[in-house]
Amino acid sequence: MSLTKEKATEPSIPRRSRAKGATVQSLLAPWEEFRRVIPLVSLKTLLSRPHPSVPTVAVLMCTMQGQHFLAEQLNSIATQSHPRWAIWASDDGSDDHTHAILEYYQSHWGEDRISIHAGPAVGSTANFLSLTCRADIDADYFAYADQDDIWESDKLERAVNWLKTVPDGVPALYGSRTLLVDTRNQHIGYSPLFERTPDFRNALVQSIAGGNTMVFNRAARDLLRQAGDNVEAVTHDWWAYMLVTGCGGQVHYDPYPTVRYRQHNGNQFGSNISPLAQLRRARLLLQGRFRGWVDANLRALGRVRHLMTEENQRVLDQFAQARKRAIWARLPGLMRSGVFRQTLLGNLGLAVAALIKRL
Hints:
Blueprint: H1 15-19, H2 24-35, H3 44-47, E1 57-63, H4 70-78, E2 85-91, H5 98-109, E3 114-118, H6 124-132, E4 141-145, E5 150-151, H7 155-163, E6 172-181, E7 187-190, H8 200-203, E8 215-217, H9 218-227, H10 236-246, E9 250-262, H11 275-286, H12 289-303, H13 310-324, H14 327-337, H15 344-355
Parallel strand pairs: 1-2, 1-4, 2-3, 6-9
Antiparallel strand pairs: 4-8, 5-9, 6-7, 6-8
């Protein structure tokens, strides 16, 4: 596959800018200048090779003001070793060049490789869930994609190889560790390495894999659709982890980093490996923000309780009851529920949060 810059078709003007009445002349020059530095990957050689026996992957990408890093992410998807993918891009109302970039790639790759849709414009979680629940998206597997990361070339292949080992009809979710990079794609570290087995008891109090690494099978997608796109979940990835494990599905956490997770000022949630980031999260816990998240997740799980296994229904009840008990009974109740975080420090924080009623 060649990395080539191809001649552009007529440039697309950002939609919101058009609506504001700006002149075509004032908008063409900035877009033309921007377009010239986009390193578009050509799909000609890829499209010429049939892959009928390879399963299809629908890449669910949400965008919002993503012009600075979007092209690099699109190119990393194009150069995957797993060749059968199609991008469904849902834009939440960008007024920069995001929409123009998507249309530019679509004009070269074709609508069968990238389609563009309008998001609900009420936040990234709602945008991802709206894409997940679209009835017109059909594939063997589904992958969440952020607009500003870079996928390692074997990301989809590794995920699909594991997902194939799960029997049809069993919800399955793959997630992985990430390699952290700065705005220039320079390596600055890794996300935490988690070693305990993914489990509903863990999912109740922790999200271990970012949505930017997640790939799931049709059964998991059907489960997410059954739950609906209007659940009161904090994030789409945490929700997927809770739902799949809670309903008896399988989750695999791959310690191999499959995504270059870009750290910048626009991250909704960045990595928590630095002391400053950990201090910030500790402050959120003390302020009651974490308790609010748990409240929202429990309300969402209450709506799908009938889909959960009997064992996990008991875990859910024990955890919910422990949070409401008197101070002397909270920790014993929490221990009976079996909930846990992946690290010793995390579990100590969980105990403190329970004692001060911030869990």
